[in-house]
Design a protein that fits this description.
The structure is a homodimer of 200-residue chains. Chain A has 200 residues and is α/β, with parallel strands linked by helices. Chain A folds into two domains: 49 residues, RecR Domain 1 (Helicase, Ruva Protein, domain 3); 105 residues, Dna Topoisomerase Vi A Subunit, Chain: A, domain 2 (3-Layer(aba) Sandwich), CATH 3.40.1360. Chain A is built from nine helices and seven strands, in the order αααββααβαβαβαβαβ. In chain A, the strands form two sheets. A five-stranded mixed β-sheet of chain A has the order 4-3-5-6-7. A two-stranded antiparallel sheet of chain A has the order 1-2. In chain A, helix 2 packs across helix 3. Bound molecules: zinc ion (ZN) (2 copies). The site of one zinc ion (ZN) has 8 residues of chain B, from helix 4. Chains A, B: May play a role in DNA repair. It seems to be involved in an RecBC-independent recombinational process of DNA repair. It may act with RecF and RecO.
């Protein structure tokens, strides 16, 4: 038993965080109460702001509290004519850290999964097709995860690109098959960018 | 770079939690945004409440949002006449889980550390002495950590008890020397309670 209902509530609420069990939730609660109440208050404020204000970029679907995210807004990135398609927002961070890519992104927020009712529309492919038709991209780089679903999704998007006559490539070498893009180290990811192959 | 300043703020704010580095803070932020916004909002609310309302129990100094905590208020615990002195609120939880102790606690919120300016007053020994003089305890059990500072603090409190003619004991067997009470398993802690020895 805890010595206070509110402390129990705090420990329970902290468990919404991934990887946080009862023991570490308790440690977190005590840490904040004992040593960092202002940090806890600041976290509370930014949590409310973020949960209520962060939506999806109108152009690339990644997380942003603006209509259009900072990457899509950047003229230098627009000028490259490159569009990299990824599954999740975290993949953008992983690719940004390699410094190998200076174009823009498109975030599927998942992958095709017909059995779960996730079709082309659910991963924003209507928006992607509209952009490919109306903007001028020089190349679409498919950086979905090297899994069965990621590959199938990449193939599906490659077809759209080829029908529109847009050069399309798939990042390839170095990513361990079955792995998650977000977990790959920078060097591996760099190689997979350099070794990308065009889909004809 | 993140795609939004607010997302960056959220990731930074999550790092106030112990054991949370940049990578896991990012994973937590994405998890909340993608899958559990209501959990994030609930966490925000209870964080504000807890950080602003939780203070210390007037009797035992543990964390509570009331004047007196649920353990100190409990008549059955008052009737035992036992008082267990611990360093931190987390130690109460560890002891409660053994089911070996049904008395009340006194939380020092630290231990004597003269070089850091932490003397008897800073760990509430004036309050403890006042309680020992005005209430009738049958035994004081010293459950400070088995470290140099914890032992020195226990010795100091034992002296107070002996001067007041109150039976005083130190939990002993089983706790690895240099270890932290909070980390000890329940069986070890149970043995250390059963094998406690009176200080004469
Ligand atoms: Zn965008
Ligand atoms: Zn209390």
């Amino acid at each position: 038993m805890q010595t206070s209902p509110l402390l129990e509530n705090l420990i329970e609420a902290l468990r919404c965080l991934p990887g946080v069990g009862p023991k570490s939730a308790q440690r977190m609660a005590y840490h904040l109460l004992q040593r960092d109440r202002s940090g806890g208050m600041a976290l509370s404020r930014v949590l409310t702001e973020a949960m209520s204000q962060i939506g999806h970029c109108e152009q690339c679907r990644t997380f942003t509290e603006e209509d259009v995210c900072t990457i899509c807004c950047n003229p230098r990135r627009q000028n490259t004519g490159l569009l990299c398609v990824v599954e999740m927002p975290a993949d953008i961070q992983a690719i940004e850290q390699t410094g190998q890519f200076s174009g823009r992104y498109f975030v599927l927020m998942g992958h095709l999964s017909p059995l779960d009712g996730i079709g082309p529309k659910e991963i924003g492919l209507d928006l992607l097709q509209h952009r490919l038709e109306t903007e001028s991209f020089t190349e679409v780089i498919l950086a979905t995860n090297p899994t069965i679903e990621g590959d199938a999704t990449a193939n599906y998007i490659a077809e759209i690109c080829l029908q529109l006559g847009i050069k399309v490539s798939r990042i390839a070498h170095g990513i361990p098959v079955g792995g998650e893009l977000e977990m790959v180290d920078g060097t591996t990811l760099t190689h997979s960018f350099i070794g990308r192959r065009q889909i004809e």
